[in-house]
């Protein structure tokens, strides 16, 4: 997991890069023989490390499987720890772009990190594939160099709301999520689709990001027939504990982070019955997924969740784009276009293609947490109960109308009285 | 020529020529960061080192000034007005901080500043209409004073260097001034100062305002450098970080905070690229400093230097240090 | 509109009766946990005047080590209570080493104490990340205590009630220690007047090591006791340290009664404040802390102004 770059290599790389820039070597033949430099912005220290460590594991699993070769070129991998704060992300992206001269960057993890560097990325024409779910990055303020193979905040919530209304027959739901943009956007998406299907959101509860004990918030949940939670990181664990400890029994549905498979080893029995809708599910029985999971188990002895899975998919997208250009990464604008044009079928998450904003159109899986089917030494398992195919960030809404309405936020859509 | 002047001249030459001897544009940017964090640390040092007042809420004030600048720019006002407003708001918030915090000293002061810093941090998250919540405020472009564009790393570095130089001179003047001497008096012997007729509270208050000015300056540089401001900047860990810069470098010295800032910025940004457990390394460095040079890197190194110097001298030393 | 039965939330709707009870019980539970966390900090600060900024990390270490013993990750599965005891002892030993070799060299040097305690907390946090990874670790409730007590509208897990019982037992034990033993008398003397204590012949340095170890062990014990409620995760130290500070400020440093009462009060403020004033959720703890610091800086039961 440590860097593959030594001081000497970096000096040589910088010198070569400076020389190339100075003399403007154009020949693609030379570019092809040169290694393809892949950068990763992740978080390996601090509270966000849970997802960040997995992101790196997903990339390394792919690179090891492919023997550090993509489209016939050797891959040099640069992993940068942003510390989970935007200033750190800015510094590290500069490190990757200016010092290491990478060709493509994966990450960062959090939306606020992404927002700090989006202008810089566009200015430097650097292809960026991130998990950060900020809606407007592919909607009202799109960045032409950005590709998202995971999901927007609401992309998994639209099908979840559809399932909750039609299959679970819920009518009166209380929403609860952390008080930040990712939580707001998730709940906004859930609300819109749920209310379109005849449901009603009674209230939305927003505990601050730093909340050791969720009981004061759980105490506000009553008089409904279901709960929608959008917690991320390790918070779903504590939420389900607090929820269970309060004796609440309403069905709980969640989005892509609320029931992540990486938490299966940490959840206790209180989470049984939790439903989630997610772009990557461990129980997808395809060759692509098995290869990935076996790789994770072999390399890291860890059962993966979506952070690892989706980064693996990102690598597949990068390689596919590179292959389409015969390994030529000299023109970054063309590289982004090639990556956005890919149409993959054998990824750990199933089919992947992109809309014209660079956001994925793919399958989303609704799963239920229980003991049935548990593999890989786990005692709990998320079992897929329904698959939604070809889900885009706009769900079934007309794109123009969707973009005309304000972005999902704390107050949008407003609660019906 | 005495060693001190030599050292200063060498340092000045090195700083002026940074873009020429560092191995890349990335490092020029790191140097800029060291400089404006050094300004932040110098500002905190006015209170911690010279005033004996430890603040764990300075990141809150830093954030207020940064947000003020960001919000003004976001509203469409020009750079000069935004900068002025940010400075004014920064100093005004520091004044409010001071009025509340100066009711105590010692651990009480630490706790009040911590509480105030946390309150400001919460405000940054909740006042979404102004701060944008955790999405933050994105800036577009830097000012161009007197026609000099600051968009490149080198130009921004030199601008920062100029402001940094002014800051050091300002702090040096402050320290040598009667106000500075009075401040250090209130740090060492508050009751005696009181008995001598000094108005201790007012001395501390003016020191706070000076600290607030420096904090606001560094915040403005920060927000122009990053082109982005978000609530993480006001977190308790940020306040702790700048305090650690001051203490590890040497509180109460002129160059201590600068060395401390360089230490933290370099470990966080450069060393972290080579060592995965850089957080542990940083902690270990702090512990090592406490064991070997508890007064800080700068005073500790000078002490070591003098020790070596004295060992070298065969006759009783008459050379000036 | 009919007279509201009890408290209403921000939209004018009455909070359900069982929510009232739930919040009350949780206030006492959370308060109990806070007492276990902050008692050590209060002792250390009261006696040694050291702001032990490592305290949150000691709590986290206790949670992780305890979780490891309970979960049987070292090949042996420990009984929950034994695991808690072992974790507390291990961390107490660590605390003793910390005091003896690092803090003892810095009497009265507050800045250096801040630097070293923060430095150690960085090391501890990264150590936990290195050893246990980024994923949260669940701690199961001890056997026999995993059910619910049902009394009318009230539904409470047995374990949360147990936390209250444990907090009371520890409080009594600490009180007996301070009030009835020689060690306790020495500690109280040291808190009141360290110089006089030395004059009278109390080995203050050794006392310091013992008290620091005790404080550290208490924090770790709190960490594992809180495990079934909070789990062990990266960032737990940063979440809990401000709470300890708030309690100690409110209750007064060096006062056991202050820690106890302060913890319960903060438990109530934390629960009812966040439930009833969600708009102020970020400020619900620090505004009262600020008020106390401004109006009564020695806290409720503190001996002297900090």
Describe the structure.
The complex is a heterotrimer of chains A (417), B (321) and C (306). Chain A is an alpha/beta fold. Chain A has helices at residues 7-23, 28-33, 49-65, 86-99, 111-123, 157-166, 181-196, 215-218, 235-245, 287-300, 306-324, 332-340, 399-404; strands spanning 36-42, 69-70, 73-81, 104-106, 128-129, 146-147, 172-176, 200-205, 226-229, 252-254, 275-278, 343-347, 350-354, 360-370, 381-391. In chain A, strands 7, 8, 9, 10, 11, 12, 13, 14 and 15 form a 9-stranded mixed sheet that branches. Chain A has a 6-stranded mixed sheet with strand order 2-3-1-4-5-6. In chain A, helix 5 links the parallel strand 4 (104-106) and strand 5 (128-129). In chain A, helix 4 runs parallel beside helix 5 (111-123), helix 6 (157-166) packs parallel to helix 7 and helix 11 crosses helix 12. The N and C termini of chain A lie far apart (53 Å). The model of chain A is unreliable at 1-6 and 8-31 (pLDDT under 50). Chain B has 321 residues and is an all-alpha fold. Chain B has a domain at 25-232: ABC transporter involved in vitamin B12 uptake, BtuC (Orthogonal Bundle), CATH 1.10.3470. The model of chain B has no long low-confidence stretch (mean pLDDT 90). Chain C has 306 residues and is mostly helical. Chain C has one domain (26-295): ABC transporter involved in vitamin B12 uptake, BtuC (Orthogonal Bundle). Helices cover 68% and strands 3% of the residues of chain C. Chain C is globular. The N and C termini of chain C lie far apart (50 Å). Mean pLDDT of chain C is 86; it is low at 1-7. The A-C interface holds A 44-47, 49-54, 179, 203, 205-208, 210-213, 215-220, 222-223, 234, 237-238, 241-242, 245-247, 262-263, 265-268, 302 and C 9, 11, 15-16, 18-19, 22-23, 26, 30, 126, 129, 133-138, 140, 148, 155-157, 160, 228-231, 233-236, 238-240, 243, 270-275, 278, 281-282.
Q: Gist?
A:
With 417 residues, chain A is an alpha/beta fold. Helices cover 37% and strands 19% of the residues of chain A.
Q: In which order are the strands of the major sheet of chain C placed?
A: 1-2
The percent range for strand residues of chain B is: under 5%
Structural class of chain C: mainly alpha
Note the beta-strand portion of chain C.
under 5%
Low-confidence stretches of chain C: 1-7
Arithmetic mean pLDDT of chain C: 86
Overall geometry of chain C comes to globular
Distance between the termini of chain B: 11 Å
What is the structural class of chain B?
A: mainly alpha
Over the alpha carbons, how many angstroms does the gyration radius of chain C reach?
20 Å
> Main sheet of chain C?
2 strands, antiparallel
* Biggest sheet details of chain B: 2 strands, antiparallel
């Amino acid at each position: 997991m440590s860097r593959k770059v030594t001081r000497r290599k970096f000096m040589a790389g910088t010198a070569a890069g400076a020389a190339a820039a100075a003399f403007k070597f154009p020949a693609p033949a030379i570019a092809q023989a040169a290694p393809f430099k892949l950068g990763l912005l992740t978080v390996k220290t601090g509270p966000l490390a849970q997802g960040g460590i997995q992101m790196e594991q997903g990339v390394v699993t792919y690179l090891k499987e492919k023997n550090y070769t993509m489209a016939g070129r050797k891959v040099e991998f640069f992993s940068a720890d942003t510390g989970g704060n935007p200033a750190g992300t800015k510094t590290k992206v500069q490190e990757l772009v200016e010092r290491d001269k990478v060709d493509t960057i994966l990450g960062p993890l959090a939306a606020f990190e992404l927002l700090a560097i989006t202008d810089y990325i566009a200015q430097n024409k650097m292809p960026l594939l991130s998990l950060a779910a900020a809606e407007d990055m592919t909607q009202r303020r799109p960045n032409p160099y950005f590709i998202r193979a995971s999901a927007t905040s609401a992309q998994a919530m639209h099908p979840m709301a559809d399932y909750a209304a039609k299959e679970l027959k819920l009518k009166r739901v209380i929403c609860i999520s952390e008080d930040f943009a990712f939580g707001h956007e998730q709940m906004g998406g859930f609300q819109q689709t749920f209310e379109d299907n005849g449901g009603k959101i009674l209230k939305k509860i927003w505990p601050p990001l730093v909340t050791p004990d969720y009981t004061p918030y759980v105490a506000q949940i009553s008089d409904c027939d279901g709960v929608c939670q959008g917690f991320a990181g390790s918070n779903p664990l504590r939420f389900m504990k607090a929820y269970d400890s309060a004796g609440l029994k309403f069905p709980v549905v969640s989005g892509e982070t609320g029931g992540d498979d990486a938490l299966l080893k940490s959840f206790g029995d209180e989470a049984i019955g939790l439903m989630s809708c997610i772009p990557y599910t461990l129980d997808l029985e395809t060759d692509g997924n098995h290869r990935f999971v076996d790789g994770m188990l072999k390399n890291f002895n860890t059962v993966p969740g979506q952070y690892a899975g989706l980064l693996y998919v990102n690598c597949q997208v990068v390689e596919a784009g590179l292959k389409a250009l015969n390994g030529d990464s000299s023109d970054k604008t063309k590289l982004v276009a090639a990556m956005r044009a890919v149409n993959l079928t054998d990824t750990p998450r199933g089919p992947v293609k992109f809309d014209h904003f660079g956001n994925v159109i793919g399958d989303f899986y609704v799963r239920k947490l229980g003991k049935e089917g548990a593999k890989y030494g786990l005692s709990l398992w998320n079992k897929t109960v329904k698959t939604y195919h070809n889900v885009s960030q706009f769900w079934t809404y007309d794109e123009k109308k969707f973009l005309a309405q304000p972005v999902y936020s704390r107050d949008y859509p407003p609660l019906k009285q | 020529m005495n060693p001190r002047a030599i050292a200063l001249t060498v340092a000045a030459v090195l700083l002026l020529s940074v873009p020429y001897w560092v191995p890349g544009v990335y490092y020029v940017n790191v140097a800029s960061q060291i400089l404006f964090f050094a300004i932040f640390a110098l500002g905190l040092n006015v209170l911690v080192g010279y005033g004996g007042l430890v603040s764990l809420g300075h990141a809150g004030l830093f954030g207020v000034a940064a947000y003020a600048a960001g919000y003004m720019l976001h509203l469409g006002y020009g750079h000069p007005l935004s900068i002025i407003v940010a400075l004014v708001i920064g100093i005004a918030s520091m004044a409010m901080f001071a009025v509340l915090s100066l009711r105590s000293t010692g651990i009480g002061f630490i706790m009040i500043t911590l509480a105030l810093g946390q309150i400001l941090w919460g405000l940054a998250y909740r006042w979404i209409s102004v701060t944008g919540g955790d999405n933050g405020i994105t800036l577009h472009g830097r000012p161009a004073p007197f026609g000099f564009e600051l968009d490149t790393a080198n130009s921004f570095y030199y601008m920062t260097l100029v402001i940094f130089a002014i800051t050091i001179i300002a702090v040096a003047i402050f320290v040598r001034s009667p106000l500075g001497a009075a401040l250090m008096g209130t740090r060492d012997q508050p009751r005696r100062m009181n008995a001598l007729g000094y108005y201790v509270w007012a001395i501390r208050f003016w020191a706070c305002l000076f600290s607030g000015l420096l904090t606001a300056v560094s915040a403005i540089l920060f927000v122009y450098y990053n082109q982005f401001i978000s609530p993480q900047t006001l977190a308790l860990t940020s306040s702790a970080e700048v305090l650690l810069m001051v203490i590890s470098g040497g509180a109460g010295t002129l160059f201590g905070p600068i060395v401390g800032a360089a230490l933290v910025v370099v470990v966080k940004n450069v060393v972290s690229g080579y060592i995965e457990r850089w957080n542990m390394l940083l902690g270990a460095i702090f512990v090592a400093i406490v064991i070997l040079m508890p007064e800080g890197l700068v005073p500790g190194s000078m002490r070591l230097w003098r020790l070596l110097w004295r060992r070298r001298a065969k006759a009783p030393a008459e050379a000036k240090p | 509109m009919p007279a509201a039965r009890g408290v209403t939330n921000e939209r004018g709707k009455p909070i359900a009766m069982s929510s009232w009870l739930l919040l009350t019980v949780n206030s006492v539970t959370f308060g109990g946990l806070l007492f276990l966390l902050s008692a050590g900090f209060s002792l250390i600060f009261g006696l040694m005047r050291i702001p032990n900024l490592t305290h949150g990390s000691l709590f986290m270490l206790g949670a992780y080590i305890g979780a490891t013993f309970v979960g049987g990750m070292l090949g042996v599965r420990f009984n929950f209570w034994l695991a808690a005891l072992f974790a507390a002892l291990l961390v107490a030993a660590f605390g003793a080493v910390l005091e003896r070799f690092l803090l003892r060299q810095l009497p009265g040097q507050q800045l250096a104490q801040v630097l070293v305690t923060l430095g150690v907390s960085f090391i501890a946090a990264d150590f936990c990340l290195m050893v246990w990874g980024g994923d949260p670790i669940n701690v199961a409730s001890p056997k026999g205590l995993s059910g619910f007590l049902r009394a009318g509208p009230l539904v409470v897990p047995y374990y949360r009630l147990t936390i209250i019982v444990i907090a009371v037992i520890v409080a009594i034990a600490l009180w007996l220690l301070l009030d009835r033993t020689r060690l306790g008398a020495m500690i109280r003397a040291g808190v009141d007047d360290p110089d006089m204590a030395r004059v009278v012949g109390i080995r203050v340095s050794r006392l310091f090591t013992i008290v620091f170890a005790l404080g550290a062990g208490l924090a770790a014990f709190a960490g594992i006791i809180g495990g079934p409620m909070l789990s062990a995760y990266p960032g737990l130290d940063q979440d809990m340290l401000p709470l300890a500070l708030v309690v100690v400020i409110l209750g007064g440093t060096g006062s056991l009664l202050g820690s106890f009462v302060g913890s319960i009060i903060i438990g109530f403020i934390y629960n009812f404040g966040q439930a009833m004033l969600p708009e102020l959720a970020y400020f619900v703890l620090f505004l009262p802390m600020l008020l106390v610091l401004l109006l009564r800086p020695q806290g409720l039961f503190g001996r002297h102004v900090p």
